[in-house]
Amino acid sequence: MPDPTFTAIVLAAQRAGVVDPLAEAHGVSHKCVVPIGGKPLIVHAVEALLATPGIARMRIVVEPEMDAPLRSLLPVTTSKVDFVPAADNLADSVFAATHGVDGPLIVTTADNVLLTPGAVSAMLRTITTIADVGVAMATKYAVLTAHPEGQRRFYRFADDEYSNCNLYGFGGAHAIKAAESFRSGGQFAKKPMRLLAAVGVINVVLMLTKQLSLKSALGRLGRRFKLRIAPVVLADGSHAIDVDNERTYNCAAVLLEKRQGQQIKAAA
Protein backbone atom coordinates (compact mmCIF):
# COMPACT_ATOMS: atom_id res chain seq x y z
CA MET A 1 0.00 0.00 0.00
CA PRO A 2 1.22 3.55 -0.71
CA ASP A 3 2.30 5.67 2.24
CA PRO A 4 -0.59 7.79 3.58
CA THR A 5 -0.40 11.53 3.01
CA PHE A 6 -0.28 13.50 6.25
CA THR A 7 0.12 16.96 7.72
CA ALA A 8 2.73 17.53 10.41
CA ILE A 9 2.23 19.98 13.26
CA VAL A 10 5.18 21.18 15.31
CA LEU A 11 4.46 22.94 18.61
CA ALA A 12 7.25 25.49 19.10
CA ALA A 13 5.79 28.28 21.23
CA GLN A 14 6.75 29.24 24.78
CA ARG A 15 4.39 29.95 27.62
CA ALA A 16 3.44 33.61 27.61
CA GLY A 17 5.48 35.73 30.00
CA VAL A 18 7.84 32.87 30.89
CA VAL A 19 11.55 33.01 30.14
CA ASP A 20 12.75 29.52 29.34
CA PRO A 21 15.84 28.70 31.47
CA LEU A 22 17.47 26.67 28.71
CA ALA A 23 17.00 29.44 26.14
CA GLU A 24 18.39 31.97 28.59
CA ALA A 25 21.41 29.76 29.34
CA HIS A 26 22.20 29.49 25.63
CA GLY A 27 21.64 33.18 24.90
CA VAL A 28 18.59 32.85 22.63
CA SER A 29 15.01 34.10 22.92
CA HIS A 30 13.19 30.77 22.43
CA LYS A 31 14.00 27.22 23.41
CA CYS A 32 13.13 25.98 19.90
CA VAL A 33 16.26 27.68 18.51
CA VAL A 34 18.70 26.47 21.18
CA PRO A 35 21.59 24.84 19.28
CA ILE A 36 22.25 21.13 19.73
CA GLY A 37 24.22 18.79 17.50
CA GLY A 38 25.10 21.67 15.20
CA LYS A 39 21.47 22.73 14.57
CA PRO A 40 18.61 24.47 16.39
CA LEU A 41 16.33 22.09 18.30
CA ILE A 42 13.42 22.56 15.94
CA VAL A 43 15.46 21.71 12.85
CA HIS A 44 16.09 18.15 14.10
CA ALA A 45 12.33 17.56 14.54
CA VAL A 46 11.50 19.18 11.20
CA GLU A 47 14.09 17.11 9.32
CA ALA A 48 12.72 13.86 10.77
CA LEU A 49 9.21 14.79 9.67
CA LEU A 50 10.34 15.83 6.19
CA ALA A 51 12.17 12.53 5.78
CA THR A 52 8.97 10.58 6.48
CA PRO A 53 7.27 9.29 3.31
CA GLY A 54 3.87 10.88 2.72
CA ILE A 55 4.35 14.30 4.30
CA ALA A 56 2.27 16.90 2.45
CA ARG A 57 2.50 20.02 4.57
CA MET A 58 3.85 21.28 7.86
CA ARG A 59 2.34 23.77 10.27
CA ILE A 60 4.50 25.30 12.97
CA VAL A 61 2.77 26.80 16.00
CA VAL A 62 4.83 29.69 17.36
CA GLU A 63 4.65 33.35 18.34
CA PRO A 64 4.25 35.58 15.24
CA GLU A 65 7.55 37.37 15.88
CA MET A 66 9.37 34.05 15.37
CA ASP A 67 7.99 33.39 11.86
CA ALA A 68 10.77 35.14 9.95
CA PRO A 69 13.66 33.86 12.12
CA LEU A 70 12.43 30.27 11.79
CA ARG A 71 11.92 30.52 8.03
CA SER A 72 15.58 31.42 7.70
CA LEU A 73 16.62 28.34 9.69
CA LEU A 74 14.40 25.58 8.38
CA PRO A 75 15.51 23.27 5.55
CA VAL A 76 12.25 23.71 3.61
CA THR A 77 10.77 26.10 1.10
CA THR A 78 8.28 28.62 2.45
CA SER A 79 5.55 27.10 0.27
CA LYS A 80 5.81 23.87 2.24
CA VAL A 81 5.36 25.43 5.68
CA ASP A 82 2.61 27.45 7.33
CA PHE A 83 3.10 29.34 10.58
CA VAL A 84 0.17 29.40 13.00
CA PRO A 85 -0.01 31.89 15.89
CA ALA A 86 0.17 30.15 19.26
CA ALA A 87 -2.94 30.21 21.44
CA ASP A 88 -3.14 30.60 25.22
CA ASN A 89 -2.94 26.85 25.85
CA LEU A 90 -1.74 23.69 24.18
CA ALA A 91 -5.15 22.35 23.19
CA ASP A 92 -6.25 25.57 21.48
CA SER A 93 -2.89 25.74 19.69
CA VAL A 94 -3.51 22.24 18.31
CA PHE A 95 -7.06 23.15 17.31
CA ALA A 96 -5.82 26.28 15.51
CA ALA A 97 -3.10 24.37 13.68
CA THR A 98 -5.50 21.67 12.50
CA HIS A 99 -8.20 24.03 11.26
CA GLY A 100 -9.16 23.18 7.70
CA VAL A 101 -6.89 20.13 7.54
CA ASP A 102 -8.34 16.84 6.39
CA GLY A 103 -6.65 13.47 6.66
CA PRO A 104 -4.05 12.09 9.09
CA LEU A 105 -2.18 14.50 11.35
CA ILE A 106 1.07 14.04 13.22
CA VAL A 107 1.73 16.31 16.20
CA THR A 108 5.05 16.71 17.95
CA THR A 109 7.11 19.35 19.76
CA ALA A 110 10.06 21.43 18.63
CA ASP A 111 12.24 19.96 21.39
CA ASN A 112 11.71 16.38 20.16
CA VAL A 113 15.21 16.30 18.69
CA LEU A 114 15.55 12.50 18.70
CA LEU A 115 12.44 11.94 16.59
CA THR A 116 12.94 9.57 13.66
CA PRO A 117 11.01 8.93 10.44
CA GLY A 118 10.53 5.35 11.59
CA ALA A 119 8.62 6.49 14.68
CA VAL A 120 6.43 8.80 12.58
CA SER A 121 5.70 6.00 10.11
CA ALA A 122 4.75 3.66 12.98
CA MET A 123 2.31 6.30 14.23
CA LEU A 124 0.83 6.71 10.75
CA ARG A 125 0.24 2.98 10.41
CA THR A 126 -1.66 2.99 13.70
CA ILE A 127 -3.96 5.94 12.94
CA THR A 128 -4.73 4.73 9.42
CA THR A 129 -5.53 1.15 10.36
CA ILE A 130 -6.64 0.49 13.94
CA ALA A 131 -7.15 3.79 15.80
CA ASP A 132 -8.44 7.35 15.58
CA VAL A 133 -5.73 8.62 17.92
CA GLY A 134 -2.24 7.31 18.63
CA VAL A 135 0.05 8.09 21.56
CA ALA A 136 3.73 7.16 21.29
CA MET A 137 5.28 5.64 24.41
CA ALA A 138 8.47 3.80 25.38
CA THR A 139 9.04 1.40 28.26
CA LYS A 140 11.14 2.41 31.23
CA TYR A 141 13.68 -0.27 30.33
CA ALA A 142 14.00 1.05 26.77
CA VAL A 143 14.39 4.66 27.93
CA LEU A 144 17.02 3.90 30.56
CA THR A 145 18.84 1.63 28.13
CA ALA A 146 19.06 4.54 25.69
CA HIS A 147 20.43 6.79 28.46
CA PRO A 148 20.35 6.17 32.23
CA GLU A 149 19.54 9.84 32.90
CA GLY A 150 17.07 10.21 30.03
CA GLN A 151 13.90 10.30 32.16
CA ARG A 152 13.14 10.23 35.86
CA ARG A 153 9.34 9.97 35.84
CA PHE A 154 7.30 7.13 34.37
CA TYR A 155 3.65 6.18 34.15
CA ARG A 156 2.96 2.90 35.95
CA PHE A 157 0.51 0.45 34.41
CA ALA A 158 -0.31 -3.20 35.05
CA ASP A 159 1.94 -4.39 32.25
CA ASP A 160 4.96 -2.03 32.56
CA GLU A 161 6.19 1.49 33.22
CA TYR A 162 6.23 3.94 30.31
CA SER A 163 7.34 7.40 29.30
CA ASN A 164 5.61 9.64 26.79
CA CYS A 165 7.46 10.32 23.53
CA ASN A 166 5.80 13.65 22.63
CA LEU A 167 4.49 12.18 19.40
CA TYR A 168 0.76 11.98 18.70
CA GLY A 169 -1.32 10.98 15.70
CA PHE A 170 -4.88 11.88 14.73
CA GLY A 171 -6.72 10.02 12.00
CA GLY A 172 -8.51 13.15 10.88
CA ALA A 173 -10.37 16.25 12.01
CA HIS A 174 -12.92 14.12 13.90
CA ALA A 175 -10.19 12.89 16.24
CA ILE A 176 -8.81 16.28 17.24
CA LYS A 177 -11.24 16.58 20.13
CA ALA A 178 -8.88 14.28 22.05
CA ALA A 179 -6.50 17.25 22.25
CA GLU A 180 -8.83 18.62 24.91
CA SER A 181 -6.82 16.45 27.33
CA PHE A 182 -3.94 18.89 26.91
CA ARG A 183 -5.85 22.14 27.49
CA SER A 184 -4.07 22.56 30.83
CA GLY A 185 -0.67 21.92 29.31
CA GLY A 186 -0.07 18.17 29.48
CA GLN A 187 2.97 17.12 31.57
CA PHE A 188 0.81 14.64 33.49
CA ALA A 189 3.76 12.88 35.11
CA LYS A 190 4.88 16.16 36.66
CA LYS A 191 1.42 17.49 37.53
CA PRO A 192 -0.96 14.61 38.42
CA MET A 193 -4.02 16.85 38.88
CA ARG A 194 -3.98 17.50 35.15
CA LEU A 195 -4.26 13.77 34.56
CA LEU A 196 -7.16 13.59 37.01
CA ALA A 197 -9.04 16.30 35.13
CA ALA A 198 -8.31 14.76 31.74
CA VAL A 199 -9.19 11.11 32.25
CA GLY A 200 -11.47 11.05 35.29
CA VAL A 201 -11.17 9.90 38.89
CA ILE A 202 -12.06 6.23 38.36
CA ASN A 203 -9.58 5.77 35.55
CA VAL A 204 -6.80 7.38 37.58
CA VAL A 205 -7.55 5.12 40.56
CA LEU A 206 -7.42 2.04 38.33
CA MET A 207 -4.10 3.21 36.90
CA LEU A 208 -2.59 3.97 40.29
CA THR A 209 -3.57 0.56 41.60
CA LYS A 210 -2.03 -1.04 38.48
CA GLN A 211 -5.31 -2.60 37.41
CA LEU A 212 -5.01 -1.32 33.84
CA SER A 213 -2.46 -2.04 31.16
CA LEU A 214 -1.38 0.84 28.93
CA LYS A 215 -3.60 -0.44 26.13
CA SER A 216 -6.60 -0.81 28.45
CA ALA A 217 -6.10 2.65 29.97
CA LEU A 218 -6.02 4.32 26.56
CA GLY A 219 -9.04 2.28 25.54
CA ARG A 220 -10.99 3.64 28.52
CA LEU A 221 -9.82 7.14 27.72
CA GLY A 222 -10.99 6.62 24.15
CA ARG A 223 -14.46 5.65 25.32
CA ARG A 224 -14.57 8.93 27.24
CA PHE A 225 -14.06 10.78 23.95
CA LYS A 226 -15.91 8.21 21.79
CA LEU A 227 -12.72 7.55 19.88
CA ARG A 228 -10.35 4.62 19.40
CA ILE A 229 -7.11 5.58 21.16
CA ALA A 230 -4.14 3.22 20.94
CA PRO A 231 -0.54 3.23 22.15
CA VAL A 232 2.40 3.12 19.75
CA VAL A 233 5.18 1.56 21.83
CA LEU A 234 8.54 2.46 20.33
CA ALA A 235 11.43 0.05 20.85
CA ASP A 236 14.04 2.82 20.84
CA GLY A 237 13.71 4.54 24.22
CA SER A 238 15.59 7.63 23.04
CA HIS A 239 12.30 8.82 21.54
CA ALA A 240 11.13 9.61 25.08
CA ILE A 241 14.06 11.96 25.74
CA ASP A 242 13.07 15.44 24.67
CA VAL A 243 14.96 18.58 25.65
CA ASP A 244 13.27 19.95 28.76
CA ASN A 245 16.25 21.20 30.76
CA GLU A 246 20.04 21.13 30.94
CA ARG A 247 20.10 17.48 32.07
CA THR A 248 17.99 16.21 29.17
CA TYR A 249 19.82 18.57 26.81
CA ASN A 250 23.07 16.83 27.71
CA CYS A 251 21.48 13.38 27.30
CA ALA A 252 20.06 14.27 23.90
CA ALA A 253 23.38 15.77 22.79
CA VAL A 254 25.19 12.51 23.58
CA LEU A 255 22.61 10.45 21.69
CA LEU A 256 22.63 12.78 18.69
CA GLU A 257 26.41 12.55 18.49
CA LYS A 258 26.17 8.77 18.67
CA ARG A 259 23.59 8.70 15.87
CA GLN A 260 25.67 11.00 13.69
CA GLY A 261 28.70 8.78 14.22
CA GLN A 262 26.69 5.70 13.20
CA GLN A 263 25.43 7.47 10.07
CA ILE A 264 28.96 8.48 9.06
CA LYS A 265 30.20 4.95 9.64
CA ALA A 266 27.32 3.48 7.61
CA ALA A 267 28.00 5.87 4.72
CA ALA A 268 31.74 5.10 4.63
UniProtKB/TrEMBL annotation:
Keyword tRNA processing listed? The answer is no
Q: Which of UniProt's keywords are assigned here?
A: Magnesium, Transferase
The answer to whether the entry has keyword Magnesium is yes
The MobA-like NTP transferase domain is annotated at 28-136
The terms under GO molecular function for this entry are: nucleotidyltransferase activity
Entry-linked Pfam families: NTP_transf_3 (PF12804)
- Signal peptide positions on this chain: none
SUPFAM superfamilies per the UniProt record, alphabetical: Nucleotide-diphospho-sugar transferases (SSF53448)
Put simply, this protein is called NTP transferase domain-containing protein
Species name for this entry?
A: Sphingomonas montanisoli
